[in-house]
Amino acid sequence: MQHLLTAGAQRALKQAERIAQSSAAPELDACHLLAALAFEESRAAELLLAHQIELAMILEQFPIQLPEEPANSDSDSTNEPLELSQALYHFPALREILNQALEQVSRSDVPTEIGSEHLLWGLLTTAGSHSEWLRSQGTLTTAAFEQNLILQQRQSAEPINVDFAFRVVPTTASDQTNTFRTIDAAANRLREGLRVIEDYLRFTLDDAHLMQLLKNTRHQLAEALRFIGQDSLIASRDTLHDVGTSISTTSEFERQSMEHLLQANLKRVQEATRTLEEFGKLISVEAAALFKQMRYALYTLEKSILSCLHNQRRLEDCRLYLLVSESLCHHGSGPAVREALAAGVGIVQIREKEMTDRQLLEHGRHVREWTRAAGAILIMNDRPDLAVAIDADGVHVGQDELPVREVRQIIGPQRMIGVSTHNIEQARQAVLDGADYIGVGPTFPTTTKSFAEHEYAGLNFIKQVAAEITLPWFAIGGINADNLCQAVQAGAQRVAVSSTICSAPEPGQITSELLSQFPG
Ligand SMILES: Cc1ncc(COP(=O)(O)OP(=O)(O)O)c(N)n1
Ligand SMILES: Cc1nc(C(=O)O)sc1CCOP(=O)(O)O
Ligand SMILES: [Mg+2]
Question: What does the Swiss-Prot or TrEMBL cofactor note state (predicted)?
């Protein structure tokens, strides 16, 4: 089987060669490739940045001199696919890294080319000062990296077809020109729409995770257009004579709100990818497959952005979340729940591991009455069926329980789904899976649920989530009146507690104390 390198991977290898030359190194080695991966816009560069590894740090660590001249775009043209066997021949010093990259690609369920991210995997998993240094940077572990690769693959709705036959089907020259012209116009629309959405994500929603997904789509666009051929696109462009460039409807200039603007651009980019996919089929099957993947990724992105906005509104006033368990309450769960609600708890979760279904149903109906009277949200732990039976507002599931997709089938479109997460990859995945909020923990040691010592995610996890996720989330685990301020300082705007309220002699009083520690 032939294994091909993506255009991004090819560019990185060529750039590595140039870096080795400008560094006057006796031969190309792994650190030149590492610098090249950080230097070029690529998936690997984004992964490095996501783990706070910047080009400047690499240059400081290794004896590297970047080339003064920019790469010559003609000689670096990557329209011709490169096979792994050719790459091994041209870059023998990188043999081990390329083999590791191939091994990682072979684990994928879908046919995948060797991309820059796989080269980075190769660097991470081969022995040498480069991998020692990469691992010493903290968060770039092989486990974290593999999670990222899985995430990228899941975003791809369809396998990439790696049959590289170039096929220009349109028969007449005029048909060909118009096909390229249509693709060029749609690609421009897509680029512009993506930019608007990116600016929204950057300046309004401030969501680094979703912005990263959008950037991946921009890279995919660049890759797909390489299959089409930039020269033909530019040569066929005729903006002056494009019908529609001078006609505009008033609706084009009307945007009632920021959200309306966002939605208009989300639709615009989806439509543009459909045009690209359809017309792309006339030029290159590879490009068409990439456009299709982009379209599906944009549907997921749309859903994630809109879900963030919707749930931010739904949970706007909910700072404090109470997980209630009868066994933790000294004076029964009824008084604890009612006092906490009166003091301002915004969400209550029924978390009972010992009750029979009948007991849960009866108990659930009482808690439903109390929460409804207080205008609070009610969530059922673990059990989507019982959430429906007691008319709860949602259900909370852990990593080993039913996935969001299946839960959604049971509870319908309106009820909320909360998902527990214990590391940043799980948190990112929960956003894409369609969770309405996430639990982020354990923050501090707790006796309410058992975790092994190494499972304490701690305040670092809180900081990571605060830095990139805007879907509402609750820090959880061992939070009390003495340490809540640390979670807030780490970036938590919402927290969930169980024993601190349930076991308190005066649940209402401790609730007020916890709530008073939130700014504003
Ligand atoms: C808000 C919130 N976050 C996390 C959890 C934990 O859920 P899970 O991992 O399923 O563990 P159990 O609570 O079921 O023991 C939660 N319940 N609520
Ligand atoms: C149920 C639960 N889940 C956690 C997670 O990290 O997912 S921590 C936790 C225990 C929360 O209770 P307390 O406030 O008494 O520590
Ligand atoms: Mg659970």
Answer: Binds 1 Mg(2+) ion per subunit.
Beta strands in 161-245 (DSSP E): none
Give binding residues as ranges.
349-353, 381-382, 401, 420, 446-449, 478
304 and 367 co-located in one domain: no
**Residue among 18, 181, 189, 351 flagged as catalytic:** 351
Query: How many angstroms does the Cα of residue 218 sit away from the middle of ligand 1?
Result: 36
Give the sign of the dihedral formed by CA 321, CA 325, CA 326, CA 327. Answer: negative
Q: Cite the DSSP H helix spans in 375-444.
A: 384-389, 404-411, 424-433
- Which ligand is closest to the CA of 503, given by its number? 2
**304 part of the active site:** no
Same domain, 127 and 14: yes
Tens digits of residue pLDDT in 138-191: 677 777 777 676 666 555 444 444 444 445 455 688 888 889 999 999 999 999
Strands 82-83 and 416-421: unpaired
Among protein residues, the one with the nearest Cα to ligand 1's atom 15 is 449
Q: What is the pLDDT of residues 499-511, one digit of tens each?
A: 999 999 999 999 9
Instruction: For residues 183 and 269, state if they share a domain.
Output: yes
Phi, psi of 299 (to 5 degrees): -65, -45
* 189 among known catalytic residues: no
- Domain with 270, as residue range(s), is 173-311
Q: Which residues line ligand 2 (CB under 6 A)?
A: 323, 420, 439, 441-442, 446, 448-449, 476-479, 497-500
For the chain, the domain total comes to 3
- Looking at 383, 420, 428, 498, which residue is catalytic? 420
Is the reported ipTM for this assembly greater than 0.90? yes
Does one domain contain both 411 and 267? no
Q: Which stretches of 440-519 are DSSP H helices?
A: 458-468, 484-489, 499-502, 507-516
Q: How far apart are the CA of 439 and the centre of ligand 1, in A?
A: 7
The domain spanning residue 286 has which CATH number? 1.20.1260
Query: pTM for the full model?
Result: 0.69
